[in-house]
Design brief:
Length: 226
């Protein structure tokens, strides 16, 4: 397979990829060790956080999830698919017999492996995976600041409110557009050029039922991220 295929589908190890940096070697606060981003993403994020702290020295923004490659996304997906990991609002996934419905429930917040923007080293989640957090107190201050300032550093929110397809709103997920715009294009070119062959090297539970939904989820993003 050509390298760009492996890159945009997350079939690589960011810890040994020369274009990635371990956030432990930067001044970016993280919730756990051993998280990676593209160097360009990390540099711009570091600048943005410095400026945020000038305005709000008392509030901490930390990265809680950065690059997840195919294998780590596959673990998340399959734990949800088999019911080992709970899906918000669903008591038992195993009671849902229609595999497409089951996939769509997981797809509210989790992407199929091979289709996540977290593969690219451009996207990361901050502070809390709960939209409510961003509606009051520190969370509200952070989100408001990001809406007004993040674009100056190249960061945009792909999963905004008001889209009628794709993942639900995610106020915690931000993308470094100077790089991610190209990776989105690459992903679409590879998907449309490969047809069913796209999934040949990307196996995970349920792919035969939901694989064809991937382009909808990949492309249902805010207009500024397209
Ligand atoms: Zn995310």
């Amino acid at each position: 397979m050509i390298p760009v295929f492996n890159y945009v589908t997350g079939k690589f190890d960011p810890s040994i990829h020369p274009l990635f940096i371990n956030l432990d070697k930067t001044d970016i606060p993280v919730s756990r060790k051993g998280q990676y981003l593209r160097k360009e993403t990390a540099e711009s994020l570091s600048l943005m956080l410095k400026d945020f702290h000038k305005d709000h020295p008392e509030i901490k923004i930390s990265v809680i999830s950065a690059t997840r490659n195919f294998n780590s996304q596959k673990v998340i997906w399959e734990e949800k698919w088999t019911g080992r990991r709970k899906i918000t609002g669903i008591s038992s996934i195993n009671e849902i017999k229609d595999p497409v419905k089951k996939g769509e429930l997981i797809l509210q917040y989790s992407s199929m492996p091979g289709t996540s923007r977290h593969h690219w080293g451009t996207d990361f989640d901050i502070n809390s995976l709960n939209n409510e957090y961003y509606s009051k107190g520190e969370g509200k201050i952070i989100y408001h600041w990001l809406l007004n300032n993040a674009s100056k550093y190249g960061f945009y929110q792909p999963y905004t409110a008001g889209r009628d397809t794709g993942y639900k709103e995610e106020k915690w997920h931000w993308s470094y557009l100077p790089l991610s715009k190209q990776f989105l294009q690459d992903w679409n070119t590879l998907y449309s050029g490969n047809g069913a062959g796209f999934w040949k090297e990307l196996s995970f539970k349920g792919v035969e039922h939901v694989g064809n939904l991937a382009p909808i989820y990949v492309n249902s993003i805010s207009s500024e991220c397209r």
